[in-house]
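Hi all, a correction to my earlier message: I attached the wrong file for Nucleotide-binding protein-like. Here's the right sequence:
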Amino acid sequence: VRHRSSVAAKGASIVGVKDIIAVASGKGGVGKSTTAVNLSVALAKACQMKVGLLDADIYGPSIPTMMNLHEKPEVDRDMKMIPIENHGVRCMSIGFLVGKDAPIVWRGPMVMSAIEKLTRGVAWGDLDILVVDMPPGTGDAQLSISQRLQLSGALIVSTPQDIALIDARRGANMFRKVQVPILGVVENMSCFECPNCGTKSYIFGQGGAQRTAEEMDMKFLGEIPLELDIRSSSDEGNPIVVASPHSASAKAYTSVAEKV
Ligand code: ADP
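and the right structure:
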């Protein structure tokens, strides 16, 4: 990971944090959080960076489960919350602060004040990179986060399916509007390989994200297969990058991390 000169010039918006990147998707359920988690762990383990992971998916925080973190953060002398660490990544999530089944029914201004608390109200320490798991979509919250955090770049996750790609384009255009560089597109759930017979099935279509990336002049960062182990390791809070570091899918995530 190289620090983008534009960032150095602007200065990161959180003291001690060199770069802040968003992992975004136009649509929910395409694997944005799974990608954010595995990317963060790959950046920490394979790229040996100091990494933070912020769960900004206020209405559907998944980081506590995916990173197997369930305790409440403590506060330091300055009343800043201390991030909770697992797999070499310092994490913060609204999920640490509210009950697991509590509905989060906040309106826009409350969402932004929560984000403010989860970013500048946290003792992140020195970080090479803070990965932000964005809320899905292109609404007010996404725009405010992009602007207030002075993102160094955004990575877009999509499945190859048209309906997801349409929303991915919308997401890319939103970042362009606020002058956030797009780091590239990751195609998730690209292909399913039958564990019994080895047949490959392109359940959500083939090559769609790569075509969209080309059409929109964005880098294509790679494909992640649709795989039972990715889902189960994620549910267990032990991301595939650590659960099975030599698997093809862990290598695919690491390759994305190296390109970011
Ligand atoms: P989003 O953040 O976009 O809503 P998630 O990362 O929460 O999406 O993923 C949605 C569901 O799909 C989760 O159950 C997750 O475990 C599963 N999933 C994501 N990516 C993959 C993949 N490549 N293979 C198998 N399951 C996946």
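Sorry for the mix-up. Residues 25, 28-34, 62, 136, 188-189, 224, 226-227, 230-231, 234 surround adenosine-5'-diphosphate (CB under 6 Å).
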